[in-house]
Write a structure and sequence with these properties.
With 1278 residues, this protein is an alpha/beta fold. The protein has 44 helices and 33 strands. A 7-stranded mixed β-sheet has the order 19-29-30-31-27-32-33, with helices on both faces. A 6-stranded mixed β-sheet has the order 17-16-13-14-15-18, sandwiched between helices. The longest helix has 33 residues. Belongs to the DNA mismatch repair MutS family. InterPro entries: DNA_mismatch_repair_MutS-lik_N, DNA_mismatch_repair_MutS/MSH, DNA_mismatch_repair_MutS_C, DNA_mismatch_repair_MutS_clamp, DNA_mismatch_repair_MutS_core, DNA_mismatch_repair_MutS_N, DNA_mismatch_repair_MutS_sf, DNA_mmatch_repair_MutS_con_dom. Component of the post-replicative DNA mismatch repair system (MMR).
Length: 1278
């Protein structure tokens, strides 16, 4: 009979009392009253369920039986031969099966019958399945009983309370959580159980098996999703109903969540500029006792009485109160009296919790992760777990659901602490004997701290290709009176791919560079030194992120400085003999630069400390990919990328729309990538377009190679990779395995086969690398047709494409991939592993010696029929015929016999069998480590594998851009790129013929519904560098500005542009001021936001920049707004001399610049007719036309919006009145006021800087008022 080895399951003694034993108060019974169980029992090796015993000391003491002994329980036997029912009749019946190795019985159900092999399929209550021959097994049939328990539910609530008191444990007899039929016995045995006493001496041993065993009997196969089945108590008529978090009725507002815990901080800082996020805000919220609904009714009183130290007189672990300057709310002081009242298991849990109060503990007990006390409320609300019986909050889930539940909580903003069991009860017993210890609780250790910035595995990573960055930031003040007054260092980590981006840069008071990085990458978690960042930096973090998790570290001690960071980094790259290995090139450059990279190194130090606390540092660092921040951000002498600040990224909706999604964005239009890592690369390209003509032309050539003749090859490439996993993340997980899981993680007692998952991921990585190499190699056929140097570099083996065929062949020869996938273990082939080959050769030699010895014995006895036989576990028995027995030597040891034969072992055979046993054990041990050794070999080439992923990603993006051109509305062209203009070569230019919109597509619009336009800006001495754009409301002005800016971005990433022709001088930076929005949380009004973005343009724009201003000045009065708009336009045209588009409804500006050759007057054409009531009706033509538009026709928009006719008529009359009055005032442009306008704009440029240095609005409002007065005087001509 074949049976698996014991998996740690133990027979239950008393189920109902065990379920809360771990977290129940130790009984105060007299130890002298404890009784030992009767050691005598049935010596049969196959005891019945009722008489099974273990070698351990009994966990529970049972009261003495009555004087009249009970008759022995007779086991129920299977159907006898008298009835002989068909085997198929057993299907559906409940059964108990005895497992000899476990020495216990397990219950399940017969699921099916296979007539061919005469075996029944048994599904056990824990979900495991097994095929057995029932007649050959020791089984018992379980008779189905009517669910009498349901009748008990119809009793009144008073009866329920009485029964609870009788139970002695404060538990309701109804287990609203479980539906296993075995639970029906619980209610029947209440009276019996109430008389039982827990053996105090053995209680701690009981605690270690309670959760496993209790759940083992109560878990059904329906729990595959890790959830306990709910029972609708209301329908059963039970007067006492349990209501969990999240069950509120519709329309009922949820109460404030307190004790049940909250997520993490919703943002950084508070409304007040001087305030920053308290690092303990979450810890405090997780302990505030504000339970709601039935949870409050069930647990509220207990928690209010028992946990007073969480509120009044609360202290941190070092005894400091909340008003202390160094108070740490992440920890908790536990009063001695409280600790004395706890059992060993309870004390262990509270010791972990007191040091990690801001985290949710997943506490391992056997095969389950348990959540207790305040954590249980979070589990019930966020994970849909069900409370278990008892007065203490308690819920949990099976080991296999760990990844799923960690992912859920982390994504919702919680910190999760995984506490693993690192010792079995058997190991505890051994430790107690060896050390003479009285410890009664198994060892547990922290193995992981998971947040949404440190997720390495989970469902969200499978479905979402976007990177989740963890960002560490620090800063150092620079000299005063400088435009850029702060040096900022940042370290960005994508934990799922092992990528570190490190660098530092100088930033101004508005933190434009920092805001650009935050808008591009949107970090989900931030690490910062506590109470050191300036208010301007805090504001930038708060206003340009989407509710990140915030961690404050103690400066120097936790957030390391540059010197400490260098020391720690070198430790990661030390070999076992103490010698230092070479650092990655990026880290080497940072270390060598010393003080010139102090901020960058310090930010890396803060990040390393945080990763160390999360047990991820060793996993990531050794095989990490380190890159520097782009040169454009670092302020290098040679700019390689166009700069898109946060305003440009958001206003143009390059990566995200206003709601944070990707629908309708430029990224969504261009994203035809088939790989997740290709999608991430496309986002980086869009956020940082190229500013190097040669590189752009190389990309254009590569994209052109995938069109026409090369299209079919490109489509084959896409098809081959369409089912490819996220290789970048998959490889990072494999590299982390070989670099160490942390000492505690290695010691964790796991029941799920983690190695099988690792094996499947390893094989998936091998197949993926093989597929990528094959797909990339298939594109080499284009090299003879393509002129692209970039394509040649990418696809030439040894240059861009790594030569890894030999390495992959090595792993292919090492073992059978398909066999390993199906069996879950690696059988290495010869030459794959030295240890395995050595063991196999040893076994082969021993078996050869046994064969040789057999021949010698045949010759010695003189009988050639003597041979080896195996009987049970006895192998290599010499079977000698009875006729030759007289010739057997005296040293032969008789082992067994059968009719006509005798079986012997000799000393020589026994010696060889011992050697064979040792060799086979060595073989098994080598097979256990073969997977780790193969992954280690694979990871030695981690840089090469990453290079293969990088090449595949770049090819995927190039093909995606080639395909994207087919989705434009109208024709597409390859842009003509010119070097950036300078004073000798002429002014920068931009020319587009029939320019369409890159996002509007033919499948979303009717054919020809979008009107293309010709746009010409700059190019020669007589050409206007600015377009002053007027036109009716809703006429398409903002759309034109956006499509010009997006066309420039497309051109400089190397993609085609939706136009018949597009000529462009390189643009170094795009500035966009568009839309009306405010930053109320930052204390910024709409008008201040408008001026802030404008001031950024005036201070940072160059001759090669592109500026798009949409209706500047509308946030204030007409006179002030018009004055500011005129001043800004004048400054950009006369001083900066950049290219730009300026849309406005201030028609006075068109009159002022009517004869200015530097400014082209244009408007969006329309047709005006008379409608009902004499009101004007406007037909939009959306055509860019020379000249200015006399009116904005706002009343027409009011008509379209449905404003009542009477109101419209009144508005039209007022409009005519205003125009007749205002139009009589003449306006003369004069060169004399140009200098005055420049002076005004210089004052305006200082507005934002002045505003950022004050906590209140009053100061910078005075500055704005002064500028407004000067501009008003300028307009009036005084």
């Amino acid at each position: 009979m074949s049976r698996r080895l014991s998996n740690g399951r133990s027979p239950l003694v008393r189920k109902q009392s065990q379920i809360t034993a771990f977290f129940s108060t130790p009984p105060s019974s007299n130890p002298k009253s404890k009784l030992s169980s009767n050691p005598s029992s049935d010596p049969s090796p196959s005891p019945s369920p009722s008489t099974s015993k273990t070698n351990k000391k009994p966990l529970l003491a049972i009261p003495p039986p009555s004087k009249t002994p009970s008759p022995p329980i007779k086991p129920k036997t299977p159907p006898s031969a008298e009835t002989e029912p068909p085997q198929s009749d057993f299907v559906g019946r409940r059964i108990k099966v005895y497992w000899p190795l476990d020495k216990t019985w397990y219950t399940g159900q017969v699921k099916s019958y296979d007539a061919e092999c005469n075996k029944h399929s048994i599904q056990y209550d824990d979900g495991e399945e097994e095929s057995i021959e029932i007649e050959k097994e020791k089984v018992e049939w379980i008779e189905e009983e009517p669910p009498k328990k349901l009748r008990r539910l119809r009793k009144l609530s008073e009866k329920v309370e009485i029964e609870q008191e009788k139970s002695g444990s404060g538990e309701c007899e109804l287990d609203c959580v479980d539906d296993d039929s075995s639970d029906e016995d619980w209610g029947k045995n209440v009276e019996k159980e109430s008389s039982e006493e827990v053996d105090l001496e053995d209680e701690e041993e009981l605690e270690e098996v309670v959760a496993v065993n209790s759940r083992k009997e109560r878990t059904t196969s329906s729990q595959s999703a890790g959830k306990r089945k709910k029972i609708d108590v209301g329908k059963m008529g039970c007067a006492k109903k349990f209501k969990f978090e999240g069950d509120e009725e519709k329309g009922t507002p949820k109460a404030t969540k307190g004790f049940v815990g909250v997520k993490m901080s919703p943002g950084i800082g508070s409304n007040n500029q001087s305030e920053t996020l308290s690092k303990g805000s979450n810890a405090k919220a997780m302990t505030d006792n504000n339970l709601t609904g039935e949870a409050a009714e069930r647990f509220g009183n207990r928690e209010a009485e028992k946990f007073k130290f969480l509120r009044e007189g609360r202290k941190d672990a070092k005894g400091r109160r909340p008003d202390h300057v160094n108070y740490d709310p992440r920890t908790l002081y536990l009063p001695p009296d409280f600790l004395k009242s706890l059992s060993g298991g309870q004390r262990q849990w509270w010791e972990f919790k007191s040091q990690h109060l801001d985290k949710v503990l997943f506490f391992k007990m056997g095969k389950f992760y348990e959540l207790f006390e305040m954590d249980a409320h979070i589990g019930a609300r966020e994970l849909d777990l069900q409370y278990m019986k008892g007065e203490q909050p308690h819920c949990g889930f099976p080991e296999k659901n760990l990844s799923l539940n960690v992912d859920k909580l982390a994504r919702k903003g919680y910190r999760v602490l995984v506490v693993e069991q690192t010792e079995t009860p058997e190991q505890l017993e051994i430790r107690r004997k060896e050390m003479g210890s009285k410890v009664k609780v198994v060892k547990r250790e922290i193995c992981a701290v998971v947040t949404k910035g440190t997720l390495t595995d989970g469902e969200s990573l499978l479905t979402n290709p976007d990177a989740s960055y963890l960002m560490s930031i620090t800063e150092t003040p620079l000299e005063k009176d400088r435009e850029k007054d702060t040096l900022i260092g940042i370290c960005l980590v994508d934990v799922s791919t092992g990528k570190f981006v490190v660098g530092q840069f100088e930033d101004d008071t508005d933190r434009h560079w920092l805001c650009s990085i935050l808008s591009e990458l949107r970090p989900v978690e931030i690490i910062k030194p506590s109470n050191t960042l300036k208010p301007e930096t805090e504001k930038a973090l708060r206003n340009n992120t989407r509710e990140p998790l915030v961690n404050e570290l103690v400066p120097s001690l936790e957030f390391w400085d540059a010197e400490k960071t260098i020391e720690e980094v070198k430790m990661y790259y030390c070999s076992p003999d103490g010698e230092s290995d070479a650092l990655p090139p990026v880290l080497t450059d940072l270390v060598r630069s010393g003080n010139n990279s102090s901020c960058a190194l310090s930010s890396l130090g803060g990040c390393l400390f945080y990763l160390r606390q999360a047990f991820l540092d060793e996993k990531l660092i050794k095989c990490a990919e380190f890159v520097l921040l782009p040169c454009g951000v670092l302020g290098g002498s040679i700019q390689k990328y166009m700069i898109l600040d946060s305003a440009a990224l958001e206003n143009l909706e390059v990566l995200e729309n206003m709601s944070g999604g990707s629908s309708g964005t430029l990224f969504a239009q261009l994203d035809h990538c088939v790989t997740p890592f290709g999608k991430r690369l496309l986002k980086r390209w869009l956020a940082r377009p190229l500013y190097d003509r040669k590189t752009i032309l190389e990309r254009q050539d590569a994209i052109a190679s995938f069109k026409g003749v090369g299209l079919s090859t490109a489509l084959d490439f896409r098809k081959a990779l369409s089912s490819l996993a996220d290789m970048e993340r998959l490889l990072a997980r494999l590299f982390a395995i070989c670099e160490g899981n942390g000492s505690s993680a290695k010691r964790a007692i796991l029941y799920e086969d983690a190695s099988k998952k690792q094996l499947l991921e390893f094989i998936s990585a091998l197949r993926g690398c093989q597929l990528m190499l094959k797909a990339c190699s298939s594109l080499t056929s284009l090299l003879s047709l393509a002129e692209s140097t970039l394509l040649h570099d990418l696809l030439t083996p040894g240059r861009g494409l790594p030569e890894m065929s030999d390495v992959l062949d090595h792993f292919k020869d090492a073992f059978d991939w398909s066999q390993a996938e199906s069996t879950g273990r690696i059988i290495p082939r010869e030459g794959c592993d030295v240890d395995y080959d050595t063991a196999c050769n040893t076994i082969k030699d021993i078996k050869s010696n046994l064969t040789k010895y057999l021949k010698e014995q045949r010759k010695l006895i003189g009988d050639s029929s003597i041979d080896y036989v195996n009987v049970g576990k006895d192998t290599y028995l010499l079977e000698v015929p009875e006729s030759s027995r007289e010739s057997v030597p005296r040293n032969y040891e008789l082992q067994s016999s059968k009719k006509g034969y005798f079986r012997y072992w000799t000393p020589k055979i026994k010696e060889l069998l011992q050697e064979l046993s040792r060799a086979e054990e060595e073989k098994e041990n080598s097979m256990k480590g073969i997977l780790h050794r193969l992954i280690q070999q694979f990871s030695e080439n981690h840089c090469t594998w990453r290079q293969l992923v990088s090449v595949t990603a770049e090819l995927d993006v190039l093909i995606s851009l080639a395909i994207a051109g087919d989705y434009y509305e109208g024709p597409a062209c390859r842009p003509i790129i010119n070097e950036a203009g300078d004073s000798t070569d002429g002014a920068p230019s931009l020319y587009a013929k029939s320019l369409g919109h890159p996002i509007l597509r033919s499948d979303s619009l009717g054919k020809g519904s979008f009107v293309p336009n010709n746009v010409k800006i700059g190019g020669g001495a007589g050409d206007a560098s600015f377009i002053l754009l007027t036109g009716p409301n809703m006429g398409g002005k903002s759309t034109l500005l956006r499509q010009v800016c997006m066309a420039v971005i497309l051109a400089q990433i190397g993609a085609d542009v939706p136009a018949e022709r597009f000529d462009l001088s390189l643009v170094d930076r795009i500035f966009v001021r568009m839309g009306a929005r405010d930053h109320i949380m930052a204390g910024h009004s709409t008008f201040l936001v408008e001026l802030t973005e404008t001031a950024s343009m005036l201070s940072a724009a160059t001759r090669n920049s592109l500026v798009a201003l949409d209706e500047l000045g509308r946030g204030t009065s007409t006179s002030d707004g018009q004055a500011i708009a005129a001043s800004v336009l004048e400054y950009l045209v006369r001083n900066v001399q950049c290219r730009g588009l300026f849309s406005t409804h201030y028609h006075r500006l068109a009159v002022d610049y009517e004869k200015d050759t530097k400014i082209a007057l244009c408007h969006m054409a329309c047709q005006v007719g008379m409608g009902e009531g004499g009101l004007e009706e406007v037909t939009f033509l959306y055509r860019l036309t020379s000249g200015s538009c006399p009116k904005s026709y706002g009343v027409n928009v009011a008509r379209l919006a449905g404003i009542p006719a009477s109101v419209l008529q009144k508005a039209a009359d007022k409009s005519n009145e205003f125009e007749s009055t205002y139009g009589k005032q003449s306006s003369k442009s004069s060169d004399k006021i140009s200098d005055a306008m420049v002076t005004v704009m210089k004052s305006l440029a200082c507005v934002t800087g002045t505003a950022m240095k004050h906590d209140r609005d009053s100061t910078h409002l005075e500055v704005i008022c002064k500028v407004q007065k000067r501009t008003s005087l300028l307009i009036s001509g005084n």
